[in-house]
């Protein structure tokens, strides 16, 4: 019972140097696995046992919130990546242009917010209640689903996400990230 480590929708060797197999061994195989294990240990025998992940995130605090939110954040992040380079479709392009002025300006603002997030956290593209898109910084494990915002795209900027392949160079990881996005996944989140 409890939560299980998701299957990746690609092989851990598919990204070459952009995201190495060793990086997946640690980020997915050890870090995400630890969040899954910790969550399962914390919900055992409590009111949260058998509760859907989103409900746990919205109703919990402290260690259980941190660990369950990290399951959601990481599953979203790993599922939105693809080794096959893609581009936003017309629907997504139109929405990004409407919200940010152009695809380039979207990438600029996303990069700027991902770069300047001090310490550990997540840079998210979210859809707000009024239908507009926004780029927001979330610290540590914090996640937009806690606040009822619709998650669209995220980048993990914890050092554990890039230190093996990019060492301390977070901006290099961010620049490469745009080539790794599965834009079809992003489009599905917006429909
Ligand atoms: Fe991570």
* Average of the residue pLDDT scores: 97
Task: Provide a count of the helices.
Answer: 8
Q: Looking at CATH, which topology of the largest domain would you report?
A: minor pseudopilin epsh fold
Tell me the name of the CATH homologous superfamily of the largest domain. Answer: Iron/manganese superoxide dismutase, C-terminal domain
Say what oligomer this is.
Answer: single chain
**What spatial form do the alpha-carbon principal axes imply?**
globular
Distance between the termini: 32 Å
Count of strand segments? 3
Q: Largest sheet, order of strands side by side?
A: 2-1-3
What would CATH call the class of the largest domain?
A: Alpha Beta
Percent of residues in beta strands:
5-15%
Taken in chain order, the helices and strands follow as HHHHHEEEHHH
Radius of gyration: 16 Å
Q: Any idea what the CATH architecture of the largest domain is? A: 3-Layer(bab) Sandwich
Which structural class do you get from the secondary structure elements? mainly alpha
Distinct compounds present:
fe (ii) ion
What percent of the residues sit in helical stretches (DSSP H or I)? 40-55%
Number of domains: 2
Write the layout of secondary structure elements.
Elements: H1 21-43, H2 53-59, H3 62-79, H4 90-100, H5 103-116, E1 121-127, E2 133-139, E3 150-156, H6 159-166, H7 170-177, H8 183-190
Antiparallel strand pairs: 1-2, 1-3
Helix pairs in contact: 1-3, 1-6, 2-3, 4-5
